[in-house]
Design brief:
2 domains
Length: 152
């Protein structure tokens, strides 16, 4: 049976911290240091000296980082998809029922879905006008008349 020594415990702790850190903050960065730690631990079991273990750790970590950095940047820079009504913000919609805040009236349509709408500035917006969703307030979309407004 292999006895526990401080070097082996150190590599296990470094690997665990890196993998847990990668789970908490996914950046494809700490992952490779964890893999490098496992490689160094394996080299420890093979009897390599402590300085060679560090070389194994560094080589595996650096090669892993370099090989996946571009891929990681591409994946991690994508904007997360908005869910639910948040996806409607900044969308252009068509007014299907005149929007009049004083009468609590107004509807817009987007991809077959009809939504209650209120005007951002309180002005009446005619049916068929194009509007842009500014925000969501409760169950209503707050909209603004589009500058280049060609009635549909």
């Amino acid at each position: 049976m292999v006895g526990l020594d401080i070097v082996m415990i150190s590599w296990i702790i470094i690997a665990a911290v890196c993998f847990i850190g990668e789970i908490v903050i996914p950046q494809f960065f700490l992952f490779w240091f964890g893999v490098g730690s496992i490689g160094a631990l394996a080299s420890h079991f093979l009897g390599l000296s402590y300085s060679y273990q560090w070389v194994v750790f560094a080589v595996i970590s650096v090669v892993g980082l370099i090989s996946t950095r571009r891929f990681a940047r591409m994946i991690l820079k994508k904007e997360p998809k908005k869910a639910g009504v948040e996806r409607l913000i900044d969308e252009v919609m068509v007014v299907t029922s005149e929007i009049d805040n004083s009468k609590s009236m107004g509807k817009v349509r987007d991809r077959g879905d009809s939504w209650r709408a209120v005007s951002e500035d309180g002005k009446i917006i005619k049916e068929g006008s194009k509007v842009r969703v500014i925000r969501v307030e409760g169950v209503s979309l707050v909209v603004r008349l589009e500058e280049n407004n060609n009635h549909v």
